[in-house]
Amino acid sequence: LHLQIIYYGRTYSPARGWDLEKDIITRTVGKKSLLNDYYKKKGF
After folding, report:
1. How does pLDDT run across 12-36, given as a tens digit for each residue?
2. Where in the sequence is the domain holding 29, given as residue range(s)?
3. How far from 1 is each of 7, 8, 20, 27, 33, CA to CA, in Å?
4. pTM of the model
């Protein structure tokens, strides 16, 4: 399980070039303020 979490982070939630559309976990259970800021910047 530990390695699965690491590989998920590398693939879907990198430190650089992060995209909420790819990051399923953050999109589902992420902080509302983070999600609202992201959608405001994207123009949703």
Report:
1. 988 888 888 899 999 999 899 999 9
2. 2-42
3. 10, 11, 23, 21, 29
4. 0.61
